[in-house]
Amino acid sequence: xxxxxxxxxxQGTTSDAGKSITVAGLCRVLKRxxxxxxxFKPQNMALNSAVTASGGEIGRAQALQAFACDLQPHIDFNPxxxxxxxxxxxxxxxxxxxxxxxxxxSFGSIKQLAFQSVLESxxxxxxxxxxxxxxxxxxxxxxxLRKNDIANMGFAEAVNCPVALIGDIDRGGVFAHLIGTxxxxxxxxxxxxxxxxxxxxxxxxxxxxxxxxxxxxxxxxPLFGVLPYLHDLRLDAEDAIRIDPNSKGDIVIxxxxxxxxxxxxxxxxxxAHPDVRLEFVRSGDxxxxxDLIILPGSKxxxxxxxxxxxxxxxxxxxxxxxxxxxxxxxxGGYQLLGNRIDDPQGIEDTAGSxxxxxxxxxxxxxxxxxxxxxxxGQFAIGDLQGALSGYEIHCGQSHGAALQYAxxxxxxxxxxxxxxxVVSDDQQIIGTYLHGLFEHAECLNxxxxxxxxxxSSHKIHHWDHTRREQLDRLxxxxxxxxxxxxxxxxxxAGITNH
Length: 498
Fold this sequence. Notes:
The protein has 498 residues and is α/β, with parallel strands linked by helices. The protein has two domains: 6-222 and 483-497, P-loop containing nucleotide triphosphate hydrolases (Rossmann fold), CATH 3.40.50.300; 251-462, Rossmann fold. Helices cover 30% and strands 29% of the residues. It has a six-stranded parallel sheet, with helices on both faces. It has a six-stranded mixed sheet with strand order 15-13-16-18-26-25. The longest helix is centred in the N-terminal third of the chain and has 19 residues, at 110-128. It is globular, with a radius of gyration of 23 Å. The relative contact order is 0.12. InterPro entries: Class_I_gatase-like (IPR029062), CobQ/CobB/MinD/ParA_Nub-bd_dom (IPR002586), CobQ_GATase1 (IPR033949), CobQ_N (IPR047045), CobQ_synth (IPR004459), GATase_3 (IPR011698), P-loop_NTPase (IPR027417). Pfam families: CbiA, GATase_3. The active site is at residues 331, 435. Catalyzes amidations at positions B, D, E, and G on adenosylcobyrinic A,C-diamide. NH(2) groups are provided by glutamine, and one molecule of ATP is hydrogenolyzed for each amidation. GO terms for molecular function: ABC-type vitamin B12 transporter activity; catalytic activity.
């Protein structure tokens, strides 16, 4: 279009209002219309992340948005990622690499630390693409955060881009959310809001028309559209755990929801498999009755051992194994299977060690250099055969006699070959550092065979096939229910001419 791309920022009245999905859908629409388009989120706070081909780390939602644009994940799509390791502490990922930890009282310094990097990433994208679709974070009306904001209006004002404000009607009070948010903005920020989107509407739109007319009359801003509630939309969540209501198979898999659970998007393909009933087990509930228990990843793995004990899950897991149940530990969950986890440098929390479950003869030491790799390889376990693929995001190195019985033989994007994980002598327990295992159709069916002892009769696709179908479903919905042409016109014109 020109040397400077068109831009549109999607900001929300609340967290989980639909910003991530809206950016993904708009990216897909524009890509299908023949534009080159890239996603951008200046600052993200999430425990679901993805690895780029260059070995960087970005938010999982931005990896999905890149996929919607037919692009590989890139560190410029999410230059700042905050990964909470406790209620008062977050790891700071800057341009894909961990650079520091911030205490909650120091979050205001993130602007000084990172805003120049944010602007550099955005400028590079502007030079490469026709459109940049930008996602805000939380709400722009969070008064206590506005002084040092680089995620919402602080960014939009700095780069002079228009903003569309989205509200979730399924929560209730959407008109108050939209107008209340608008009123809490400064005059220049209010002027920057070019229109509204209402998300997750159920029912007869005619019954909403009076409210829609009031909204546009009162605000003197257009409504770009009302998006319907899309049931069973199977796309990577930014952070919130979403339960798939169709997960009703005969194989019962239970995942304890750890206090700092990370990359739970690992389990989306399992939830969609016809043979599987996947259950996320919350504090106070039981892991009993599972064919497979999966210990997921976590951003604070030593603290999770106490979380297991507090819920009685440690004893339930050990009883499950004694009675012949299968157990899979992924990343931090893998580390919990061993005898001990050491953090001598305070990588995730205060320095120290913790006694782990003691189910596998190994121990883990947390180290400063985070492993960020995309990998592929082959099973090294018993009867399981065929290819697998995934990615690694971890600070720990595991050692011990059990590791001579590896789970997989893999190669990373640099061509390095090595063994991953561990398998117990009786093949009832597997530990692995690999996220994304279930996305590979052949690998998923092999693991279903390991759990149940029989092959699945269902034909399944690689999870990217499902992602593509769901993104096209989302784009079709947007084409029908949003005034895309009007939004493109505003984005191309910029804020001064709207």
